[in-house]
Amino acid sequence: MLLQENIDITRRHTFGIPTQARAWGEYESVDELCQLLHEARRRDMEFMPIGQGSNLLFVRDYDGMLLHSAIKTLQFVALDNNTVLVQAGSGWVWDEFVAYCIAQGWGGIENLSYIPGTVGASAVQNVGAYGVEACDVIESVSVIDVDTLEEQTIAASECAYGYRTSRFKKEWKNKYIVTAVTYRLTKTPAFKLDYGNLRAKVGDAPTLQSVRDAVIEIRRSKLPEPAEQGSAGSFFVNPVVAREHYNQLLQQYPDMPCYEVDAEHVKVPAGWLIDRRGWKGKSVGGAMVYQQQSLVIVNTGNARAGDVVQLASDIAFSVFEAYGILIKPEVNYVCAGFKV
Ligand code: EPU
After folding, report:
1. Nearest-CA neighbor of 85 among 185, 173, 11, 3?
2. Is the pLDDT of residue 339 over 60?
């Protein structure tokens, strides 16, 4: 267990904006997590789980204890010739876990290759890419109840998974900390290649590794490398819009793309809306709209959180003004003691 005081966390969140935290606690087991929670409570400190910090914008220094999982357990059981249940500790770096599963020949998460973050975050955020979401393969989530310090296992069906959301982001936000996630993977993968140009890149004889390679190549061409340029991936979620509203917009913008949601709704790519408003490459201070993908705000080197907040709200206003569509951040704005 590690407990550091008053530390610089600039390199512990992917935006790379200079930030201090009052305490940083790192735990390798559920027992160590409970000790850290005791300590935070004893000192009457706020606390918040943090993985790779790839979806956070620290609006100011964090006046509490950040709790970072280093639980890297791994257990698996083959249910039959085809299905394997794999339980991974929340501290696994997500892409290392994906690579491990692919090396074992277990399919289901190859489309989710190269997403920044951790196993724990995958179950909170329901990460998704190229037609697959984590909830498609999550079987259950193991947690600690922060009030009782009891362990629980929650079935995925109880987690109200949706597009980039779950109960862990809503009513369970301050109730549970994820300690492990169990995924249902398969030895005879049903490849999902219909998103964008994935099929064209993979070719006619897909393997888990060739799908992974193609996804990594596409992501690298569109998204900044976290190690090279600060960002938090997609800054906004794609808005769900009434089909009637979308049909009206089509008259003015006939090339506006959409994804089907249900009979009454479609999802419109926020990147397209932002791009058509001319935001690519525009900046406020050190925050800039990424040239290759308008959905991403990057730190050009000296961004302050206020620059990002200003740029994001200017973008949202300009999109609303043009299309009557309100786009909302995917990134969590973190203030001391609470998230907005
Ligand atoms: N588009 C533009 N200009 C842009 C960006 C996009 O015109 O600057 C258009 C594209 O041409 C395409 C459409 O918008 O027609 C969608 O673009 P893309 O395929 O890049 O996907 P996205 O909707 O922008 C989402 C996820 C990504 C995920 C990709 C692939 C969200 C918020 N983002 O992006 O996830 O990798 O699909 O599945 O749903 C993340 O969550 O951090 C993330 C990167």
Report:
1. 185
2. no
Dist. CA 176 → ligand 1 center (Å): 30
| Domain residue ranges of the chain, discontinuous segments joined by + | 74-221, 231-331
Architecture of domain 231-331: Alpha-Beta Complex (3.90)
Provide the CATH topology of domain 74-221: 3.30.465
> pLDDT tens digits, residue range 221-230?
999 998 899 9
pLDDT at 85 > cutoff 80: yes
Q: Ligand 1 centre and the CA of 75: distance in Å? A: 34
| Ligand 1 centroid, distance to 36 Cα (angstroms) | 38
Per-residue pLDDT tens digits for 124-136: 999 999 999 999 9
Cβ of 275 less than 6 Å from ligand 1:
yes
Q: Which amino acid is present at 118? A: T
Average pLDDT over every residue of 150-162:
98
For residue 336, the model assigns a pLDDT of 64
Whether 90 is catalytic is no
- Contacting residues for 57 by C-beta, under 8 A, at least 6 apart: 15, 17, 232, 305, 308, 309, 329, 331, 332, 333, 334
Q: Of 41, 164, 243, 277, which is the active-site residue?
A: 164
pTM, entire model:
0.96
Q: Do domains 74-221 and 231-331 have the same CATH topology?
A: no
Q: Work out which ligand 1 atom sits closest to the CA atom of 294.
A: 8
Q: How many Å apart are CA 151 and CA 143, to the nearest integer?
A: 6
Instruction: Indicate if 243 belongs to the active site.
Output: no
Q: Is 318 a catalytic residue?
A: no
